[in-house]
Write a structure and sequence with these properties.
The chain is α/β, with parallel strands linked by helices and 205 residues long. The chain has a single domain, classed as 3-Layer(aba) Sandwich (Rossmann fold), CATH 3.40.50.150. 39% of the residues lie in helices and 22% in strands. The protein contains 8 helices and 10 strands. It has a 7-stranded mixed beta sheet. The protein has a 3-stranded antiparallel beta sheet with strand order 6-9-8, with no helix packed on it. Helix 3 runs parallel beside helix 4. The structure holds S-adenosylmethionine. The site of S-adenosylmethionine has 20 residues, from helix 1.
Length: 205
C-alpha cells in the first residue's frame, strides 16, 4: 500500500490516536515559536491534520502546509477554514517530490514524520533543495530506537497497527542523518512521552 493510502486509512482517527503520544506537543509548540520566529516563507511537510500548523502560522507570513494523504489534508483544510487564516494554504504533496522552486522557503517543519517515511533521505534531499541557504529545518521526531523497551514496543505496534516506524531513531542517529544530508544540526532536546521526541533545529549548509 502507498504511504498516502496507509495514512488516508486512519486520518479520521488520527486526532484521537495521537493523544497517546502527544504529551510533549505543547512544549514543541513553545520551542517552534521561539526558534522559527522571523522565518517569513514557511513550508510544513507531513502536517497531518494540523497538530503544529497553527503554531507555525503565528510566526510565518506565508505558510504552505502539506501532507501526502488527501484525507489528512481535507481535515487540515477544514480546520483552516474554521479559523479563517488567509496566509496559510493546504496542499497534497509528497515529501519526496516537492513541486517548489529551489531556495524558495526560509523554514521547513517536518514534525513526527521522518520515522514513518520509507525514504527519509530522499525527503531530506528535497528539504535541502527547497530551503534557501541558511534556512532552518525543524524536525522533531519520535525516537523508537531510544532504548530496548521502546524498540520492542515499536516492533509490536508495527505488527498490530498502522503506526509503522521505518526508522527507529535514537537522538544521535537522527542528528547524524541530518548532518549526512547537508544540514548543520543544533543541540537536541529529548522530550518525554510514550516514545520520546528528539527536538532539533538544523540549518541548511
Ligand atoms: C505521525 S503523523 C504526523 C502528523 C503531525 N505532523 C504530528 O506531528 O502529529 C505522520 C504524517 O506523515 C505523513 N506522511 C507520511 N509519508 C509522507 C510522505 N512521503 N510525504 C509527506 N507526508 C507523509 C502522513 O500522511 C501523516 O500525516
Amino acid at each position: 500500500m502507498s504511504e498516502a493510502a496507509t495514512w488516508d486509512g486512519f486520518a479520521g482517527r488520527y486526532e484521537r490516536i495521537v493523544r497517546l503520544f502527544d504529551r510533549s506537543y505543547p512544549r514543541i509548540r513553545e520551542l517552534l515559536r521561539r526558534d522559527l520566529a522571523g522565518r517569513r516563507r514557511a513550508l510544513e511537510v507531513a502536517a497531518g491534520t494540523g497538530q503544529f500548523t497553527f503554531t507555525l502560522a503565528e510566526v510565518a507570513e506565508d505558510l504552505l502546509a502539506t501532507d501526502v494523504s488527501p484525507a489528512m489534508v481535507a481535515q487540515l483544510q477544514a480546520h483552516l477554514t474554521e479559523r479563517g487564516l488567509k496566509h496559510v494554504r493546504a496542499e497534497v504533496m509528497s515529501a519526496y517530490e516537492l513541486p517548489l522552486a529551489d531556495g524558495s522557503r526560509d523554514a521547513i517543519l517536518c514534525a513526527n514524520a521522518l520515522h514513518v517515511m520509507e525514504q527519509p533521505r530522499r525527503a531530506l534531499s528535497e528539504f535541502r533543495r527547497v530551503l534557501a541557504p541558511g534556512g532552518l529545518l525543524a524536525a522533531p521526531t519520535f525516537c523508537h530506537g531510544v532504548d530496548l523497551g521502546r524498540r520492542l514496543l515499536s516492533r509490536f505496534l508495527s505488527v498490530v497497527s498502522p503506526f509503522v516506524a521505518h526508522t527507529r531513531f535514537s537522538p544521535t542517529s537522527l542528528s547524524e542523518l541530518l548532518a549526512a544530508a547537508g544540514f548543520s544540526p543544533g543541540p537536541i532536546t529529548l522530550l518525554p512521552g510514550l516514545f520520546p521526541i528528539a527536538y532539533l533545529i538544523a540549518e541548511r549548509t
